[in-house]
């Protein structure tokens, strides 16, 4: 396995912003030594029934960053989300910063480009993003060293982003009592997800882990922060030495019973374009519904 350049001595200030409409947590990650920051997994609001898009959640992040005069350097997407829309371009227009995602986005664009019958003007080369990360690629936020770990399984392009002693796992893991995300989307695979989770759990025990989602299982309050040690010991799907075979059996049976996320159709069309809403031939923002296509 790749030896990743972990720097536990750098401890970013991490602020989570919970979006109750989609149970997503967006993060502002601030360098304690400079005024630099990054955003991980922003959310654009949609009333899908009405076809209406608004920006309350993204505006919270923008206001926070503006109020403190922070410099936004990166807008990171852990993956092409299927349950909420990214606000990356809206934020970039106002605050700058580079939008980054895993390089396997090209496979995701190929797959969903077919499902949504996109024309040749839809580029499938990831060029809508400013940076495509490969496994082990590093970058900086201010003086904080960061790197990406390829953690496929939920989707082919999933990356975990590690900033100092904080790892943003996307949908690779949920809180220990939430287990793991589904692995049945096109390009998903339960065994691959298990292997990716093992990669994350091979990081130092004290590494802080930040979730992209929490659903407050068994009525507990929403939480989004845990550690590698806690996940290893207590995660209900992979903790306590559960085998790959056990995980695959459980995950496959469970996924077969799950309904599609409510926002999967608009989410995929927007997120595979780095958060841009597609337009029709006259340039008007327009979404499609592929009938029996998913
Ligand atoms: Fe996801």
Automatic annotation (TrEMBL):
GO MF, one annotated term: hydrolase activity
Keywords: Hydrolase, Metal-binding
A GO biological-process term: hydrogen sulfide metabolic process
A Pfam cross-reference name: Lactamase_B
UniProt domain Metallo-beta-lactamase: residue ranges: 23-213
Protein's name in the database: MBL fold metallo-hydrolase
SUPFAM superfamilies: Metallo-hydrolase/oxidoreductase (SSF56281)
